[in-house]
């Protein structure tokens, strides 16, 4: 396994020689469709031919190392090989992005489909990464926003076993980090869409018409429905209560059923609780936001601590809710806990692709901490106090004076 990883990772600098792309993609674009083309074709056929020619041209422009990476990534997902999926997801994708797609889109799913034998499940996962890249590095247009929503619906319908022949859990395993990122990005794209939609003056007539027709796209109801459905399917709240009551693993397995015993569903359910905390905070219902967290313990042993971004997000929104409910001492305690954690762990996360985002969240928490401490003066950790004084000394003094 380790040797395989070294092989394709080295391919970012030197081409791999041991992967036969022809086996992966067949005779894409070499089937002679155009050799004996009839002189008369109807419009639909012509459009189909033009589309295929465009896809062939786009496929030809994909670097071989990217093609091999996608084929390897697909095989790892088919095999449910978490170690290989993790390396491809956290390392390979980001390194190739920096090298080839820092300022442009990755190839569309339809273009790389022959590489993965038109595997629809993998293509849904690929599109999840594709649109995340568009949102983070580029500027999504209205089509991107609509299509990312449609792809999210397809992904969650698959995971919830809707519109499939399966009556049980899906045969898929993904790393903890990716599962958190799926929930986190889903909510971020919802938030981004709401902000973008509110800027009516910058919309064209066509965009306004599309928004009117697609009123359910990125609606609050649809987002909440997904999160609550994942929580219900996984029975994660029942799982957490059973753990607190000290029940045995066998008793817990009987309580949560076949979905709740699978890591995929258990983690998605757990991360959906954190997602609800964030969504209800965005919607202004801070009491309900804290209510959904009633079975989640805020300590270093909680499952959310295994994913640093989830850990930071959880404490940020819990602290923010406390502020909005005027529970300033609770907010201060929450912020101090997570800011000390970030200070301790910073040396280990400088290479993380989420390092910048974690730092930005930390900066916001220092500012919120300063506000709380001005409203409710409390003696706290010297490290945090010194950083706050250094960054917001003048503002803090003015707030303290009223």
Structure description:
The protein is mainly alpha-helical. 69% of the residues lie in helices and 0% in strands. Helix 16 runs antiparallel to helix 17. The longest helix has 23 residues, at 176-198. It is globular and about 75 Å long.
Which helices and strands, and how do they pair?
Elements: H1 2-10, H2 21-25, H3 43-60, H4 64-78, H5 82-100, H6 109-112, H7 120-137, H8 142-159, H9 176-198, H10 205-213, H11 220-234, H12 236-244, H13 249-260, H14 263-282, H15 286-291, H16 308-324, H17 328-345, H18 355-375, H19 382-401
Helix pairs in contact: 4-5, 7-8, 8-9, 9-14, 11-14, 12-13, 14-16, 16-17, 16-18, 17-18, 18-19
Write a concise synopsis of the structure shown.
The chain has 402 residues and is mainly α. It has helices at 2-10, 21-25, 43-60, 64-78, 82-100, 109-112, 120-137, 142-159, 176-198, 205-213, 220-234, 236-244, 249-260, 263-282, 286-291, 308-324, 328-345, 355-375, 382-401.
Labels describing this entry:
19 helices; 3 domains; 402 residues; globular
Proportion in helices: 55-70%
Sheet-strand content, in percent, reads: under 5%
Instruction: Briefly note the structural class of the backbone.
Output: mainly alpha
Number of strands: 0
The main β sheet shows up as: none
Average pLDDT: 86
* Total of DSSP H or I helical runs spanning 4+ residues: 19
Using the CA coordinates, give the radius of gyration: 24 Å
The H-and-E topology, N to C, reads as HHHHHHHHHHHHHHHHHHH
């Amino acid at each position: 396994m380790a040797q395989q990883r070294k092989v394709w990772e080295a391919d970012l600098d030197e081409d791999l020689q041991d992967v036969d792309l022809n086996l992966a993609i067949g005779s894409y674009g070499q089937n002679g469709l155009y050799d004996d083309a009839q002189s008369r074709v109807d419009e639909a056929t012509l459009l189909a031919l033009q589309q295929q020619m465009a896809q062939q041209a786009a496929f030809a422009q994909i670097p071989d190392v990217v093609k091999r990476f996608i084929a390897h990534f697909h095989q790892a997902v088919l095999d449910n090989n978490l170690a290989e999926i993790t390396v491809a997801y956290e390392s390979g994708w980001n390194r190739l992005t920096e090298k080839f797609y820092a300022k442009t889109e990755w190839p569309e799913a339809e273009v790389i489909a022959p590489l993965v034998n038109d595997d629809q499940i993998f293509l849904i996962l690929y599109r999840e990464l594709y649109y995340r890249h568009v949102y983070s590095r580029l500027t999504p247009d209205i089509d991107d926003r609509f299509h990312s929503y449609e792809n999210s619906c397809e992904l969650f319908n698959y995971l919830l076993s809707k519109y499939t022949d399966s009556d049980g859990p899906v045969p898929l395993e993904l790393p903890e980090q990716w599962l958190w990122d799926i929930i986190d990005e889903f909510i971020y794209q919802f938030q981004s869409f709401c902000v973008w939609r509110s800027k009516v003056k910058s919309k064209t007539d066509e965009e306004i018409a599309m928004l009117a027709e697609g009123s359910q796209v990125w609606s609050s109801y649809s987002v909440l429905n997904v999160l609550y459905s994942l929580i219900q399917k996984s029975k994660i709240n029942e799982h957490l209560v059973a753990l607190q009551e000290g029940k045995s693993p066998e008793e817990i397995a009987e309580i949560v059923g076949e979905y709740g015993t699978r890591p995929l569903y258990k983690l998605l359910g757990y991360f959906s609780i954190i997602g609800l905390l964030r969504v209800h905070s965005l919607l202004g219902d801070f009491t309900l936001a804290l209510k959904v967290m009633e079975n989640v313990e805020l300590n270093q042993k909680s499952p959310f601590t295994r994913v640093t971004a989830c850990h930071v997000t959880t404490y940020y929104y819990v602290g923010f809710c406390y502020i909005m409910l005027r529970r300033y001492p609770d907010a201060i305690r929450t912020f101090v806990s997570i800011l000390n954690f970030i200070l301790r762990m910073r040396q280990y996360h400088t290479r993380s692709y989420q390092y910048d985002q974690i730092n930005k969240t930390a900066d916001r928490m220092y500012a919120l901490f300063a506000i709380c401490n001005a409203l409710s003066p409390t003696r706290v950790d010297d490290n945090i106090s010194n950083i706050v004084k250094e960054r917001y000394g003048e503002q803090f003094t003015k707030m303290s004076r009223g």
